[in-house]
C-alpha cells in the first residue's frame, strides 16, 4: 500500500530539459507570413492578406507551400499506414473500426485473409471491442479509411495493452512492429494507438491472430509491459517523438527506478 | 475489459501499481485569494479545485447550536464534453451527497465552534467543488481537496456584545485575527472498485469503465467509518463487503491516506509564505 501526497510547490521545474526553443510554433490566429507569394496549405487560412494558422502546431514549409502540422489531431489516414483499431460494429460483410480518424473506418470481409480460405461467421473472427491491427488500403473521398489485413502480419491482437496518443507523436518509419529486447513487442500505429504485448504471441507465429493464445501472461512480463506503457506515456507527456529507439532508451533509463 | 481484469492477478495493475496503491497526488492550498480557504488537488489527470467561503447565517432549526456545511459541486464542461449543459448534474449531486453524509458525524468536525449565537447566528461554510479534469476516482480526490481547503480556511473572529437586550456582532477585519477549523478527524472518501475478483483502490478511468460495483466509504484518521455507499449495477457479496471494510483495505488505506494528507498540509503550512503559489499555469 502506498499513498504519496506531495506539495505542488515542491515539484522541480522540468523546463531546463527543453533547452532549444522552437521558433516555428504557432497557435490559432498567429500570423505566419504577410508575404502573398506563398500557397495556403493545411492548417492555415487567409485573412486581410495575411496567412494565419488555424491550428496549434509547427509550421512546415515545402517550397512555396506552407502547412501547419497540429500537435493534437484526429488521424488523417494515408495509404500504407499501419493502424491499430477497435471493432465498433459487426456488419453483414464488413466491420466498422475506430481508428481515431474523423469518420469510422471500414474493414471489408474481402480485405481479410481468411484462415484456411473457408468462409466463417464474421462474428467468430473479430468480435465487438476486439483490437485489430491493419493497413490502410485506400482513402475514400469523404476522408474515411478502408483497411485491409491481407498479410499475415496483420489481424486480431490478443493479449496486451492499448495506449491512445496523438497521431502526430508517432514518427513515420519503415517498420512499426518492434520486438524489443526487454521481452515485449510494441506496435506503434500511425493513428496514435499503440499496442504493447508480450513477445511470442501473434508476432512470431504470424497466424493473423485467429489462433488465440489465451494462456495467462507471467507477472514478470506484465511488469515489463506496464513499464513500457508508462515510458510511452511519459514520452508523450513531454511531446517527444515515438519510435523504437526513443522508447527503448526511455525504458533503459527508467530501470533506475525499481517501482514502476 | 478482459485485459484489465486479467492484469489484476498477482497484485499488478496495468500501470504497474499494486491493488492498494494510490497514484501520485499534488496538493496546493490557498490558491484562490477571495475565499476563506481553498485548495487544489491533482491526482494523475484528475484535477479538482475547492473553495470555502464562510458567511454568517441562520443555523438549521433542528441543530440550533451548530454551524452548517453546504456542499456544492460544479462539473465544468472543460473536464469532459459530457458535462455540457446539465450533463454533469447527476454526478454533482452524487458527490455532494456523499460528502454531506461523510461529514455528517459529530466526531469528525466540531460544528459547535461555528455557532455564534444559538438559534440566531452561525457560520455557514459554503464549500464549492469544481471539477477541472476527470481522470478517474473523482470522489476520493474531491474529499481530499475538501479536507485540504477546510484546513486552509480562516474564519474571522466575532465578538458578541449585548446592549440593552439587543445583541451586536462585531466581525474583526484584521486578517491575522482569525480562527482555524480543526480538521484532523475530518473524513476522506476511499472508493474500492471490484474488478474481476480483486478490490482496487484509486481506479483510473479505464479501470472505472470495467468496474461493475464499487463501495465508497468515508474514513477518518483513526479508522472510524462515517459513511458507506455502494454504487454500480453489479452486486457485492456480503463477505466481500466485509473484506473491503474491516479485514482489509478500506480502513487501512483510509488511515494512511489521512495521515499522508495531514503530513503534506502541515509541511506546506510550515513553509508558509516562503513557497510561491504555483497556480494553474506552469
UniProtKB/TrEMBL annotation, chain A:
Keywords: Exosome, RNA-binding. SUPFAM superfamilies: Eukaryotic type KH-domain (KH-domain type I), Nucleic acid-binding proteins, Ribosomal L27 protein-like. The keyword Endoplasmic reticulum does not apply. Residues 74-118 form the RRP4 S1 domain. It is found in: Nucleus. It comes from the Eukaryota. Residues 160-198 form the K Homology domain. Gene3D superfamilies: 2.40.50.100, Nucleic acid-binding proteins. Its main location: nucleus. Residues 25-62 form the Exosome complex component N-terminal domain. The keyword Cytoplasm does not apply. Belongs to the RRP4 family. This is Ribosomal RNA-processing protein 4. It comes from Tegillarca granosa. The lineage of its organism: Eukaryota, Metazoa, Spiralia, Lophotrochozoa, Mollusca.
Automatic annotation (TrEMBL), chain B:
Pfam families: RNase_PH (PF01138), RNase_PH_C (PF03725). It is found in: Cytoplasm; Nucleus, Nucleolus. Keywords: Cytoplasm, Exosome. InterPro entries: ExoRNase_PH_dom1, ExoRNase_PH_dom2, ExoRNase_PH_dom2_sf, Exosome_comp_Rrp42_subfam, PNPase/RNase_PH_dom_sf, Ribosomal_Su5_D2-typ_SF. The keyword Cytoplasm applies. Residues 22-156, 187-249 form the Exoribonuclease phosphorolytic domain. SUPFAM superfamilies: Ribonuclease PH domain 2-like, Ribosomal protein S5 domain 2-like. Belongs to the RNase PH family. This is Ribosomal RNA-processing protein 42.
Amino acid at each position: 500500500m502506498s499513498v504519496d501526497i506531495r506539495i505542488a510547490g515542491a515539484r522541480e521545474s522540468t523546463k531546463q530539459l527543453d533547452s532549444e526553443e522552437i521558433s516555428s510554433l504557432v497557435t490559432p490566429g498567429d500570423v505566419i507570413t504577410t508575404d502573398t507569394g506563398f500557397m495556403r496549405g493545411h492548417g492555415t487560412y487567409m485573412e486581410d492578406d495575411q496567412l494565419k494558422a488555424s491550428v496549434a502546431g509547427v509550421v512546415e514549409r515545402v517550397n512555396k507551400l506552407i502547412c501547419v502540422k497540429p500537435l493534437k489531431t484526429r488521424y488523417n489516414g494515408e495509404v500504407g499506414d499501419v493502424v491499430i483499431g477497435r471493432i465498433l460494429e459487426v456488419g453483414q460483410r464488413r466491420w466498422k473500426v475506430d481508428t481515431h480518424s474523423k469518420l469510422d473506418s471500414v474493414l471489408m470481409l474481402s480485405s481479410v485473409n481468411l484462415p484456411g480460405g473457408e468462409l466463417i461467421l464474421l462474428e467468430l473472427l473479430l468480435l465487438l471491442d476486439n483490437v485489430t491491427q491493419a493497413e490502410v488500403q485506400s482513402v475514400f473521398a469523404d476522408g474515411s479509411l478502408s483497411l485491409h489485413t491481407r498479410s499475415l502480419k496483420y489481424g486480431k491482437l490478443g493479449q496486451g495493452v492499448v495506449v491512445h496518443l496523438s497521431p502526430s507523436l508517432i514518427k513515420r518509419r519503415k517498420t512499426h512492429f518492434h520486438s524489443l529486447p526487454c521481452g515485449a513487442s510494441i506496435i506503434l500505429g500511425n493513428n496514435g494507438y499503440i499496442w504493447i504485448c508480450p513477445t511470442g504471441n501473434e508476432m512470431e507465429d504470424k497466424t493473423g491472430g485467429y489462433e488465440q493464445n489465451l494462456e495467462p501472461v507471467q507477472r514478470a512480463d506484465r511488469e515489463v509491459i506496464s513499464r513500457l506503457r508508462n515510458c510511452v506515456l511519459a514520452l508523450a507527456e513531454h511531446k517527444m517523438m515515438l519510435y523504437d529507439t526513443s522508447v527503448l532508451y526511455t525504458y533503459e533509463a527508467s530501470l533506475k527506478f525499481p517501482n514502476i | 475489459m478482459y485485459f484489465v481484469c486479467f492484469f489484476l492477478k498477482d497484485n499488478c495493475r496495468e500501470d504497474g501499481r499494486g491493488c492498494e496503491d494510490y497514484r501520485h497526488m499534488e496538493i496546493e492550498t490557498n490558491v484562490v485569494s477571495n475565499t476563506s480557504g481553498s485548495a487544489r488537488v491533482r491526482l494523475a489527470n484528475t484535477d479538482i479545485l475547492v473553495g470555502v467561503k464562510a458567511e454568517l447565517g441562520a443555523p438549521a432549526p433542528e441543530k440550533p447550536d451548530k454551524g452548517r456545511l453546504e456542499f456544492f459541486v460544479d462539473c465544468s464542461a472543460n473536464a469532459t464534453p459530457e458535462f455540457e449543459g446539465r450533463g454533469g448534474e447527476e454526478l454533482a449531486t452524487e458527490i455532494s451527497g456523499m460528502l454531506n453524509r461523510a461529514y455528517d458525524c459529530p466526531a469528525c468536525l466540531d460544528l459547535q465552534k461555528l455557532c455564534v449565537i444559538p438559534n440566531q447566528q452561525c457560520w455557514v461554510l459554503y464549500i464549492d467543488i469544481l471539477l477541472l479534469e476527470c481522470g478517474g476516482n473523482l470522489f476520493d480526490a474531491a474529499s481530499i481537496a475538501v479536507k485540504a481547503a477546510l484546513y486552509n480556511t480562516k474564519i474571522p473572529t466575532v465578538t458578541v456584545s449585548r446592549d440593552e437586550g439587543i445583541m451586536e456582532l462585531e466581525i474583526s477585519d484584521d486578517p491575522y485575527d482569525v480562527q482555524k477549523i480543526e480538521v484532523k478527524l475530518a473524513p476522506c472518501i476511499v472508493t474500492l472498485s471490484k474488478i474481476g475478483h480483486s478490490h482496487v483502490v484509486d481506479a483510473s478511468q479505464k479501470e472505472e469503465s470495467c468496474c461493475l460495483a464499487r463501495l465508497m466509504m468515508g474514513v477518518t484518521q483513526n479508522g472510524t467509518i462515517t459513511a458507506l455507499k455502494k454504487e454500480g449495477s453489479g452486486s457485492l457479496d456480503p463477505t466481500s463487503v466485509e473484506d473491503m471494510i474491516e479485514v482489509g483495505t478500506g480502513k487501512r488505506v483510509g488511515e494512511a491516506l489521512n495521515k499522508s494528507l495531514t503530513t503534506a498540509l502541515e509541511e506546506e503550512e510550515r513553509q508558509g509564505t516562503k513557497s510561491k503559489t504555483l497556480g494553474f499555469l506552469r
